[in-house]
Amino acid sequence: MTNTLILKMIPTITIAIFIFFGFKNPSIKTSSYKCMIQMMNYSGEGAYISISLLNPEGVYEKTLFVQGDDDEWYSDITEWWKFHGKVRADIDAITGATIGGGERTVSIIEIDDDKINAGYKIRFESAVEDQAYYKDDVEFKLTSASVNSKVEGHGFVRYVRMMPQ
Amino acid sequence: MTISIWRYSHLTLAISSSIFILLAALTGIILAFEPISNKLTPYAIQDVNTLSLSKTIENLKAEYNEVVHIERDKNNYIIASVITKENKSETFYINPFTAKKVGNIIEKRAIFKFATNLHRSLFLKSTGRIIIGFVSFLLFLIAITGVLLIIKRQGGSNRYFSKIIKDNYASYYHVIIGRYALIPIIIVTLSGVYLSLEKFSLLPSNKNVHVLVKNSNLKKIDVSTFKTLTLGDIQYIEFPFSDADDDYFVLKLNNKELHISQYNKEIVSEKKDNLFALASSWSMTLHTGQGSILWSLVLLLTSICILFFMYSGFAITLNRRKNNTKIKNKFSKDAAEYIILVGSETGATFGYAKLLYKALIKEEKTVFISELNKYSNYKKAKHLVVLTSTYGEGEAPANAKHFEKLVNTIPQQKTINYSVVGFGSLAYKGFCKYAIVIDSILQLHQKFKPNIPLHKINNQSFIAFNNWLTSWSENKDIKLQIKNPNTVTNSKKSKLFKVINRSKINADNSFLIELEPTQKTKFISGDLLSVTPKNDPVERLYSIAELNNNIILSIKKHEFGICSNYFNKLKKNDMILAEIKQNKDFYFPTNTKEVVMISNGTGIAPFLGMINNENLKPVKSYLFWGGRTKDAYKTYSDSIDKAFYNKTLSGLYISFSNEESQKKYVQNSILEKIDLISRVLKNDGVIMICGSIAMKNGVMKTLENISRSTLNTPLNMNQIKTDCY
């Protein structure tokens, strides 16, 4: 008897869980940032670049943007893929085209305000077919100063510029 | 096998890279459709090139939150990267007049993605790219060697586009398509190589840097830069990222990049494209066909042509292989009595040389066969046969280039009888010219004695070669038999014929036999019927007369002749297996006014058909025939009477060599009609000869005399057609 009762309650419990945790806390504000990635003058295919949010422990928390819309190459961005490959969050709305050597691209990324000045980091990983993968092409702490600055890259990215919109 | 270095490289390169070229050509065909399908999309906006840049920017700024980038692509579509009113960054095709989106960026289709990948890297990433880049270079070399071969073949670069002589399907089209397709192939391969080199950073990149523009004049002129420039002038424009002073507009024109101040629109600095940037952009456009349907079609045709070249090229090679020229001599040069020397460019002539060699070996003669370039002294040699082709317009073929020098420096102990056989094509100006050169060299040589006159063979004719062989071997009192190498006894081609009628054997031991084809078969008088008796692999050829769609053969029974006895035993309604062989060289000419037909014995056969062909009536024909007895004539009299009655025959001149009242040969009756012969020769008429070789030789001598004595010119061989045995 008790068994069937628990079974019957499963849908109710599920709905309850969704009500509690499924929606964002509306009290946390989100801001948009204009983000420009300027590439080095390398030759070869267009680069795949993932922009991710890391928590203070350095663990992936969220994918902010992906340059490159063919998911068969996503595994080339090794570290990010370990995170995204498992979660497979829907990133359709935050993907753009790959960026070729010497090109630049401007995208709008959204970051929750409580992640700024809280030890969170933003990471730009880059990978080019047949060439190389840079785990931390660009990586910096999110502070109110850094979200309005220019940061040099180590790999395919020459620099990244961000500014609040 | 001696072939020139260019042909050798052409072939080696082609074989070594064939699989990759095949893949590249096949994928190239697919990829040619990509720019075409892109171009057929409806994103083109009319007069887009005339819209000013300032107006475009104004329109876009009104429509979107922010403009990041505007680009005019190779298809002349305008692409804008913008941040929309919904604060999303998006990229799409726009109509710059309205700033509205007209479509999403064309996505590369899966088939093109696949083909592109295979085309440039074989799915092998960098390794594949290196291979393809290298193969592209090889194909370039193939094209270059191809151009050189065509120039050699045509006899000079100024004759590159002059008429090509048709000898064989594969090689004719290999050359005729080649000389045009080589141009796009060179373009495609060079651009391919360039793109590969670029991908591997093996080319210097654009090292030009931005130079500050200080000239105040220039600044002033360009104050209204955006107003004077139209979309047609630019490749792209990048908008400044922020309001910061050092954020500029980046404006890419066709030959330079400008930084423009976002406040007063003055040019801050400029960077000129260097040659490499230009080459890179051209390589991309030329190799991919982006933006041009016409050029894409050229690329498509080029890919198809490459496939055709692979096919025809290998067909040519296999054809040459067939004439394999490896020489295995049984006897050494000093032990042989017969020496055969060959001059050949492609190896084709070796085929006949080997036939002769084998026939002599069979008769237990000591033979040595070699190339003209390996001329040496021969201790026991009594007979020399030179078989040679001619290269270009009378040059020595590749393996005969040193013969002239050698023959005058190497001494011979014995006097040697020689005979020269020239191979060539009447379509070329210098028909058998090199054979004539050799003949004259040997004539001047003390140790060489002419044996039978120079013999010229058109288009590798087996019949002509056999003719020479007969007269040459008769001269030496040996009997040589050769089999036509091109006749593969192909039961598929052989057809059944039914015996309809046959005549009695006449006093000359000859008879007529009438055959009806059991299936639809095309033939006309002058064609040959090939019959291969079961117990003898050597085919026999009989000249055909076509009468009422049936075949008439005239056959002479020899006491021990296998084939003639086989025919003699045939009765009405018997079936025989045989094959029709076209013999266009002995068709009745229709583009002339008068034709003289000369024959003896059973050689009358094809003429029986020709004189009874109503379609040939406009051409006047005269028939000479020589037989042994009057009785023999009766065999043919019915057909000849009919021709007279129908007025398809204008004159008949008969001679008998073995009658009590007459001992006369054909030559004699020709001499009696010297006026007729002279008139026909003078008016570009044609003389056809069919019958025995001995008769032909006699007749030719007579004709030569008539021509020289009445017309004062040597006999024009183009007016003579022969089919003799």
Fill in the keyword field for this structure.
heterodimer, A: 165 residues, alpha+beta, Immunoglobulin-like, 5-stranded mixed sheet, 4-stranded antiparallel sheet, B: 725 residues, alpha/beta, Rossmann fold, 3 domains, 9-stranded antiparallel sheet, 7-stranded antiparallel sheet, 20 helices, 39% helix, 21% strand
Topology of this structure?
The complex is a heterodimer of chains A (165) and B (725).
Chain A (H helix, E strand, L loop, with lengths): L1 H21 L7 E10 L8 E7 L5 E8 L10 H10 L7 E2 L7 E9 L8 E7 L5 E9 L8 E3 L4 E8 L1
Parallel strand pairs in A: 3-4
Antiparallel strand pairs in A: 1-5, 1-9, 2-3, 2-6, 6-7, 8-9
Chain B lengths: L4 H27 L1 H7 L13 H11 L2 E7 L5 E6 L5 E7 L4 E5 L5 H12 L3 H30 L14 H31 L11 E2 L3 H6 L3 H4 L5 E5 L10 E5 L2 E5 L6 E6 L2 H14 L4 H30 L15 E6 L4 H15 L4 E5 L11 E6 L14 H7 L6 E9 L8 H12 L3 E3 L4 E4 L3 H15 L18 E8 L7 E8 L10 E4 L8 E4 L1 E3 L2 E7 L5 H7 L6 E7 L12 E7 L4 H6 L9 E8 L2 H16 L5 E6 L9 H7 L1 H9 L3 E6 L1 H19 L8 E5 L1
Parallel strand pairs in B: 10-11, 10-12, 12-13, 13-14, 13-15, 23-24, 23-26, 24-25, 26-27
Antiparallel strand pairs in B: 1-2, 1-6, 2-3, 3-4, 5-9, 6-7, 7-8, 8-9, 16-17, 16-22, 17-21, 18-19, 18-22, 20-21
Helix pairs in contact in B: 1-4, 1-5, 1-10, 2-10, 5-6, 6-9, 6-10, 18-20, 19-20
